[in-house]
Write a structure and sequence with these properties.
74 residues; globular; alpha+beta
């Protein structure tokens, strides 16, 4: 069983593919990932997005962001 199976999430729904191409961008990873999801139409108005980041020593940051308008991305 994959780690995300219990919550019904698959890697294709996230930014794994994008991150594997651009690499680790430190604290900006989650925001660049969110921009990618908006720019590719994977998220849009009314969607809720889970942003998660971790660091050595395992500290974690988590936020749920609701997209309240059409994303303005170029």
């Amino acid at each position: 069983m994959r780690l995300l199976d219990p919550i019904g999430f698959d890697l294709e729904s996230g930014i794994w593919e994008h991150t594997s191409k651009v690499g680790h961008i430190s604290a900006a990873d989650v925001f660049i990932g969110l921009h990618h999801l908006c720019a590719t139409g994977q998220v849009g108005q009314g969607d809720k997005v889970l942003l998660f980041t971790g660091s050595p020593g395992f500290e974690a940051g988590v936020a749920i962001v609701e997209i309240v308008g059409e994303p303005a991305v170029s």
